[in-house]
């Protein structure tokens, strides 16, 4: 598959070779340790350096810290068994994570990612959060030929550049939107929504939002008798006020309120939506809905909001229940109180597991070999929907989504697809 992914950057700097050599050097194996063949093991490092740059402060800090938790839990679990087994050195080598805070700043995320490669000499990289930051920082691993796996970037523009070293565990936003539309078609067929159902479509003015818009529009074209779009409009990321846009929405009598928004915008927009006494038969903010931060900020106003998500702790898989328990125990050790897992941490945990498994399968710390192992990786059982993680030719995972809905009392249930359901959907949403 190496040949199928065209080189995004034609020239790889010679410094990459120097960095790769440094990453493979280190202390020797303790005296007396031998391989099964009786030969002395090859020289090798005493630890495997992995780097990450995350928004640990700034607008996306809440999620950035959740994602760091996911990375750290995976590293803790691998280190409990001695680290990653590297066949080249015939031993397990502990993992050490070097993490930097980009303060949710695009320029800083690039410079800090470059520092991880050129100064810290990491073997591989784990990515950051938000399309904007991941898109920016992912140029660095491609430039230097460093394997990079992220759990925070889902927009297709990250993966459509022909890069060879960039991988991601988040399925495309366009598939997210299509999943919600398939659910809505099912509800129309069941007589719970009118045919056709009219749509207000709002999306953040980023590639993330444009992918959501494309997914909705694709399904409207596929099912022309089922849907009609009354308003299709973008808004700026991290906006300070949505009143004018919501007034325009309120002047229409749409059935479905379909929005793609990041967490801060979801909280602000839905607060203003509620204050205006607005109503639609179905409400979604894309992947946002069950977030504890939103429930804390908005209370019962989040009741019946639906979302299509990459992961939920309610997935009926034994490995998910084990992850839930492990995450709660980990956060209790780290923070002094147990935190319930959210998808932000689950997808980065799986990104780390994918990278570490690829290193083990490569049997070496050679970056190109690790990249090739990622290209051919099959990780199962995975905690993601479908229980199997692989990467497409573009480097992006294509796992299915599940649709969840908030219920009164703080409960969130899976309402789609049928084989994953933990509760029945409430459609149309009750009028207040």
Could you list the spans in which at least 5 consecutive residues all have pLDDT below 50?
A: 1-39
Q: Helices and strands, in N-to-C order?
A: HEHEEEHEHHEEHEHEHEHEHEHHHEE
Query: Helix count, per DSSP?
Result: 13
What's the helical proportion of residues?
25-40%
CATH topology of the largest domain: Rossmann fold
> What overall form do the CA principal axes indicate?
elongated
Structure classification: alpha/beta
**Tally of DSSP β-strands:** 14
The CATH fourth-level homologous superfamily of the largest domain: Response regulator
- Spatial order of strands in the largest sheet: 4-1-5-6-7
Q: Number of domains in the coordinates? A: 2
Please identify the oligomeric state. Answer: single chain
Name of the top-level CATH class of the largest domain: Alpha Beta
């Amino acid at each position: 598959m190496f040949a199928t992914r065209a080189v995004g950057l034609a020239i790889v700097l010679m410094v990459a070779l120097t960095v790769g050599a440094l990453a493979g050097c280190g202390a020797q194996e303790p005296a007396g340790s031998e391989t099964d063949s009786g030969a002395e093991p090859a020289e090798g490092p005493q630890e495997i350096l992995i780097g990450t740059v995350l928004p640990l402060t700034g607008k996306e800090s809440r999620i950035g810290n959740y994602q760091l938790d996911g990375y750290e839990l995976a590293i803790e679990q691998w280190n409990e068994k001695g680290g990653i087994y590297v066949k080249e050195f015939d031993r397990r080598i502990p993992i050490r994570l070097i993490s930097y805070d980009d303060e949710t700043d695009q320029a800083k995320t690039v410079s800090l990612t470059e520092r991880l490669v050129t100064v810290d000499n990491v073997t591989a990289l784990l990515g950051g959060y938000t399309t904007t930051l991941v898109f920016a920082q992912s140029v660095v691993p491609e430039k230097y030929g460093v394997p990079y796996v992220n759990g925070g970037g889902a927009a297709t523009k990250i993966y459509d550049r022909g890069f060879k070293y960039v991988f991601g565990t988040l399925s495309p936003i366009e598939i997210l939107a299509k999943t919600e539309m398939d659910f809505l078609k099912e509800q129309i067929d069941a007589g719970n929504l009118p045919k056709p159902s009219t749509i207000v479509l709002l999306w953040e003015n980023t590639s993330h939002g444009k992918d959501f818009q494309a997914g909705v529009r694709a399904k409207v074209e596929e099912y022309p008798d089922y849907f009609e779009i009354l308003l299709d409009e973008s808004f700026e990321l991290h906006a300070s006020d949505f009143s004018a846009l919501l007034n325009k929405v309120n002047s229409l009598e749409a059935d479905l309120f379909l929005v793609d928004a990041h967490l801060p915008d979801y909280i602000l927009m839905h607060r203003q939506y509620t204050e205006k006494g607005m109503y639609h038969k179905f409400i979604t903010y894309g992947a946002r809905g069950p977030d504890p931060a939103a429930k804390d900020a908005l209370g019962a106003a989040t009741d019946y909001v639906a979302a299509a998500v990459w992961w939920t702790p309610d997935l009926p898989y034994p490995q998910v229940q084990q992850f839930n328990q492990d995450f709660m125990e980990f956060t209790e050790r780290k923070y002094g109180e147990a935190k319930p897992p959210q998808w932000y941490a689950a997808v980065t945990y799986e990104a780390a597991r994918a990278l570490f498994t690829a290193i083990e399968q490569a049997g070496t710390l050679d970056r190109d070999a690790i990249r090739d192992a990622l290209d051919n990786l099959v990780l199962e059982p995975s905690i993601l929907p479908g229980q199997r993680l692989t990467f497409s030719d573009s480097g992006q995972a294509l796992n299915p989504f599940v649709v969840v809905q908030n219920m009164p009392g703080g409960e969130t249930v899976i309402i789609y697809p049928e084989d994953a359901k933990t509760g029945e959907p409430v459609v149309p949403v009750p009028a207040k």
